Amino acid sequence: MEADHPERLGFSLRYMNGQAVLIIPPEEKRPRPVYADDIAARIKLLGIPPVPARRIRDIIELGSGQAETLAEWPAGAQLSARVVVKVSEDGMQAEAVVEAPRPGGAPIDKEMLASAMTAEGIIKGIDEGALRILLKPGTDGKPLVIARGKVPVKGRSARTECLFITERGKPWKEINSGRIDLKELNFIQNRKAGELLARHIPTIPPEDGYDIHGTVIDTEPVDIEILLKAGEGVLENEEGLEAEIDGNVRLEDGEIIIEPTVAVKNVDYSTGNIDFDGSVSIEETVADGFTVRATGDIHVGKTVGRGHLEAGRNLVLRAGLVGDGEGSCSVKGDLYAKFLEGAGVEVSGDLIVTEAVLHSEIEISGNLILSEGRGEITGGIAAVGGGISCKRIGNVYAGVTRIYVGCPPVKLKAFHQLGQELKTIREEVDELDRQIDYLRSRSETDPREITSMEQGMAIRNRRLKEGAAELKEMRKTLKAADGSVIAAQDRIFPGAALSFGLDEFLLGDKGLERVLLRRENGRTVVHGLKPGEEITLSAEPAL
């Protein structure tokens, strides 16, 4: 039952500041006649202390429309509206709900809101509009956010926003399941003179935040970015950095550089060999017997045969290389190709092939990745400084597929070359020994001839002794690093010969299926390989 509806009762009787008050509108504004007995009955009903009848009649007669005091009524406070404020744990937000007054209680007012906020320590981020809404009728029981803190804004130093691809650590375009689209593999990003390469972004100043209790929340320190500079072939203007010449844009040691590029349809008798300080883009192919050297990247659109390619950075063979024992390539960065067959390949970074490596001799300081298509390496020799991820190794008809993993190919090659040298010298010593025995069996032999052969044999024996010591020391360095892996998602055929460093792993007569071989604590450990399992290879090239 409500006690504060003058439109229905003709008067308002309620609690205010510790007292019971009576409000009687002027007579002309009363919706109905007001009687002292009705007011007395309601005073009794609400539990207000007794009030003299004369006092009630005087207030009716006065009709001031103002709150007129009747009696002290401390208990009336329990009937008044209440404000319940909830503060979030982080102190960044406060929410208020108004509980409607009971009959005779005072409605919500500014003082109640202020008192409730003060009790919760709310002094900052107060939403005055939300407070005005709470004071309106009809908002009882509806939660409303009345204060919000401010999240600190981390500033940012002035920076350079590049308008070209700068991070090429994984430069191929992944279209699904880690597949590589060689058509989208563009290391060469040609720009025209006057074209904007990067724009300057001004400083964003940091701003401290605060919670609703007024506690300052310090912003994080600004990360100072190094502004990129204009390198060779690049100019700086008010907007940023622009190309001064046509060419391939790249980022190197904090400088944006435009390097010259050569774009030809074919390398053949119409062009001659190419030796270029920059990058080279070849739309079709390189004819047999021709050479392309570039200090930058090389892109070739179609299959290369018995040609030779040397890239100072990366080489992209959108088709492949069929060397027939003569074609070769040397790459200081990474090599991406569809296939390699009968080729000699040296790569300082990673070799990523989308189909197969067949009967080739490859030396890779990084990793060998054959993740799609046939995904096989068959025949030939592969020395891989990192690890191998493929589908198949070897073939029942391909003969031996020789693979070394986990140690620098340069050191491995030097070890084998020294071994071959010592083998040749040993054969020479044996031959000299036979010749000396033969000459000694003949009476007419000149002793000086025998002496000369003995001196030659002594020189070779000294080299054999020195070489054996060198070979022993080199062997110590050719141990595969722990974590080196050979992963085959399909099969390793028994015709394959696998070694971690110089430690050969014996496959057995049946080979292995879905297997991951990993070097652990100086031993080669066999693990099963689940379909689609992600394989982690060594990130750093072996040196």
| Tally of individual helices | 7
Q: Can you tell me the residue ranges where pLDDT is under 50 for at least 5 consecutive residues?
A: 173-177
Structural class: alpha/beta
Form type: elongated
Summarize the biggest pleated sheet.
Answer: 20 strands, mixed
User: What is the CA-atom radius of gyration, in angstroms?
Assistant: 45 Å
Number of strands: 36
Mean pLDDT: 88
How much β-strand is present in the residues? Answer: 25-35%
Q: Give the terminus-to-terminus CA distance.
A: 90 Å
The share of residues in helices is: 10-25%
How would you describe this protein?
By secondary structure, the chain is an alpha/beta fold. The strands form 6 sheets. The protein has a 20-stranded mixed sheet that branches. Strands 7-9-14-13 form a 4-stranded antiparallel sheet, with no helix packed on it. The relative contact order is 0.06.
Précis, in short:
Helices cover 20% and strands 34% of the residues.
Topology:
Blueprint: H1 6-9, E1 12-16, E2 19-23, H2 36-46, H3 53-62, E3 67-72, E4 82-87, E5 93-99, H4 110-119, H5 128-134, E6 144-148, E7 159-162, E8 190-191, E9 196-201, E10 209-210, E11 216-217, E12 229-230, E13 234-236, E14 240-243, E15 247-252, E16 255-259, E17 261-264, E18 274-276, E19 279-282, E20 291-294, E21 298-300, E22 308-311, E23 315-322, E24 328-331, E25 335-341, E26 344-347, E27 351-364, E28 368-369, E29 376-384, E30 388-393, E31 401-405, H6 409-441, H7 447-477, E32 485-492, E33 496-500, E34 503-505, E35 512-520, E36 523-528
Parallel strand pairs: 12-16, 17-19, 18-20, 19-21, 20-22, 21-23, 22-24, 23-25, 24-26, 25-27, 26-27, 27-28, 27-29, 28-30, 29-30, 29-31, 30-32, 31-33
Antiparallel strand pairs: 1-2, 2-3, 4-5, 5-6, 7-9, 8-15, 9-14, 10-11, 13-14, 15-16, 32-35, 33-34, 35-36
